[in-house]
Amino acid sequence: MKLDIAVLSGDGIGPEVTAQAIKTLDAIAHTFNHSFIFKEGLVGAIAIDQTGNPLPDETLELCVNTDAVLFGAIGDPKYDNNPSATVRPEQGLLKLRKELGLYANIRPVKAYETLIDKSPLKREIIEGTDISIYRELTGGIYFGEKKLSKDGTVASDLCEYSKEEIERITHLAFKAAQKRRKKLTLVDKANVLESSRLWRKVVTEIATQYSDVALDFLFVDNAAMQMILNPSQFDVILTENMFGDIISDEASVIGGSIGLLASASVGNTCCMFEPIHGSYPQATGKGIANPIAAILSAAMLLEHFNLLGEANAIRNAVEKALELNLTTPDLNSTNPLTTEKVGDFIADYI
Amino acid sequence: MKLDIAVLSGDGIGPEVTAQAIKTLDAIAHTFNHSFIFKEGLVGAIAIDQTGNPLPDETLELCVNTDAVLFGAIGDPKYDNNPSATVRPEQGLLKLRKELGLYANIRPVKAYETLIDKSPLKREIIEGTDISIYRELTGGIYFGEKKLSKDGTVASDLCEYSKEEIERITHLAFKAAQKRRKKLTLVDKANVLESSRLWRKVVTEIATQYSDVALDFLFVDNAAMQMILNPSQFDVILTENMFGDIISDEASVIGGSIGLLASASVGNTCCMFEPIHGSYPQATGKGIANPIAAILSAAMLLEHFNLLGEANAIRNAVEKALELNLTTPDLNSTNPLTTEKVGDFIADYI
Ligand SMILES: CC(C)[C@H](C(=O)O)[C@@H](O)C(=O)O
Ligand SMILES: CC(C)[C@H](C(=O)O)[C@@H](O)C(=O)O
């Protein structure tokens, strides 16, 4: 197979970990006889620094014309504490999601046996946890109208959802549940929000088309508790953009390391793959960033194009690295490897 | 001291646990020579059933004319799964908060030594945790304009904040931090939301008046992770309504039992005290509900009126009950007491 892949490695540890994902994909191409062509684009703080724009037009065009996007991370503390900055790295990511129509963000959360004891949660709580979170990614309060009064004393954000926006991701989530343990939990705040009530209504209607899947509902505050009390109760979680941001980050730590978690963002025509850890500026350039989340994002990319054997080859190599404890300092305090060496091992193993 | 106290025990386990709080306050009145007069009002699902209104006018009037409100819980599953119900129990609580101007919800989260091993988190993670969460309670997306298009296909909620709304709770939170470990963490989503950027700006300005308090910022998704990874890093957390709902419920499970957690909601003229566990309908009438959260809410009430010795008498009695394991099934699986017996012990001990 021939795939054109846009590489947007972005800020902080983004470039270091993305380089390992590319190395891994090169190994796959070599072993399985594929051709993957990588083309780089600027995004985030580095794009602002170089062009004034967190998502330059060339980058967007590049993404539109490739088969898939491999994303690193964006964000820089110099923007975070400056509430009046009008250009911010995150705008690049948000615009990309919107322009590419990536309406569903899929985040698998799994407790790896070898890492269970690194979790802040007790072993008996997390054992068997295997969740797939479907977060709506191009609607809600992220993209609703934002206002700041002229005198700067009143600010607002609109959380809006249409039936269509809810429907398309709901179908994806139900289909995923059918291939898994056949349970779908909608997380919302229907006791307070009008938009949540629309979610509940639309999802309930669609559920009749997937009668083999058990549907239940959880208020987001309760979901935030249940995620800690009993995470293995969940199979597929479906939720709107903001709640998905919070709940999926919360879920990301239960497995023992956020450095392992990959994500896929999909739409009707485009797709993007991204580690969920963010730019982690404190670690930049030190060779301590865990590349496995980026590498597993590459595996999700292969899976998306139905290259299942190839994706499994990556997963096996990753599990081997974990088993042998050939990992970065976050998982190995006594004898850690650098970001690059972990990438080398995984690529060689393939 | 003479206090008029409105009792709104509400739905589910609300009445059972509130009865124990009243018993405890009666014991305090007797021992310390105070006069507490309790007057009951209807609220929630039971108020809908009896009057059609989740917050009848008489209840509101009662609350306005008393010194403090003791609240039980509201909510009933028959409303939760009916997105088109136009009258819902939660409206009673929300209206009460708004009408009484209870703009700050204060939730202490503490790891009790005797309960640490019941936590889903590991001992070394939660040891020393002692957080006070200041959640804004009368603004944001809870109270912004809600819309549903005529054809029912588009729904929206507006999240709006004014400078004044942010200022008043921010001052309370900084003052609390001054009396504690002098650290305040603002939780927001300033990289995406205009309203969060206003929060960050206003809080940063006010911080200059409290130079002995260290201020830092956390995005809400990161806060949801940090709460599990390292909860003892927090002292006072300040946040807006929706984020406060999620983060405080998440925090509530780290101590080992949500059945212990009390809250105070305060405004300029009125105040209300409430266990945070909710109506827990499955447990209603079984005598298994933990009354300690309601009893500790009564302690917060006394504290609010500067009856510190009295509040401590309650806390000591509660700690004794925990020490002797004279508790309900959630904390004691071998030889549990009923809700009432736990209340009896605490009142007698006082
Ligand atoms: C960087 C930020 C805008 C983004 C989000 O909130 O969506 C990130 O937290 C994520 O989850 O991908
Ligand atoms: C019942 C509900 C409306 C309420 C809220 O979301 O504020 C509850 O969850 C709480 O936190 O007191």
Automatic annotation (TrEMBL), chains A, B:
Pathway: Amino-acid biosynthesis; L-leucine biosynthesis; L-leucine from 3-methyl-2-oxobutanoate: step 3/4. It catalyses: (2R,3S)-3-isopropylmalate + NAD(+) = 4-methyl-2-oxopentanoate + CO2 + NADH. Signal peptide: none annotated. Its cofactor is Mn(2+); Mg(2+). Substrate binds at residues 97, 107, 135, 221. Mg(2+) binds at residues 221, 245, 249. Binds 1 Mg(2+) or Mn(2+) ion per subunit. The record marks 142, 189 as: Important for catalysis. Catalyzes the oxidation of 3-carboxy-2-hydroxy-4-methylpentanoate (3-isopropylmalate) to 3-carboxy-4-methyl-2-oxopentanoate. The product decarboxylates to 4-methyl-2 oxopentanoate. Homodimer. NCBIfam families: leuB. HAMAP family: LeuB_type1. This is 3-isopropylmalate dehydrogenase. It comes from Aquimarina muelleri. The gene is leuB.
